Amino acid sequence: MKSMKLAFLGAALLGAVCTYAQTADEVVDKYLNAIGGKENWKKVNSVITEGAMQVQGADVTVVSTAVQGKGSRQDISVMGMTGYQIITPTEGWSYMPFQGQTKAEPATAEMVKMGADQLDVQGALVDYKTKGHSIELLGKEDVDGTECHKLKITYKSGKIDTYFIDPATYLLVKSISKQSINGQEMELTSAFSNYQKTPEGIMIPMAVTVPLGPGLSADMTVKKIEINKPVADTTFKPSN
Length: 240
Hints:
By secondary structure, the chain is of the alpha+beta class.
């Protein structure tokens, strides 16, 4: 009788785990449908965006260029100076003249590893199992008065993101990324709104609150988006 009870308990636990995983996948599927569909996103090879924001009273322009699996580059212009950050699968560079840098400096191995998700322009949840990521549904959590689905994404690299998805629209409204910066683990929070559909049929947030560091963020407005525009390989090489 005891062994029978244990068998029933094992079956019940297995059923609960399967239901839990299926529920997480249902949220992922609805999210992907809401942002234009997985098949549309799988056609995306490059994304170029131009955004504007103010940081401590200064106007900042950010042009982000990313090519699937090849490279990610951010060109940042402020106070008449332009710097950049580049990440590729094997290396990266940073040149920030407004922070006193006089030449491009190589990224550390840790920075390259943690920046790997920037090379996935289609998004981590598109074919996430094939990419080696895992997800967990952690119930719901309040975000500005809305009980949002809470998804934990553990990347192949070990990086962890938490997505908060609106149950009415299934759009991503907030994310929290755990990253190691200068040997210290930090949580960086981003917020997303004003989604617009591109001619390619995918949804992009045109308003993004971006983290700049501990306790510091800025509201960026996306002014321009280009999908699948050819990008030269030299884009992902340091220019000084």
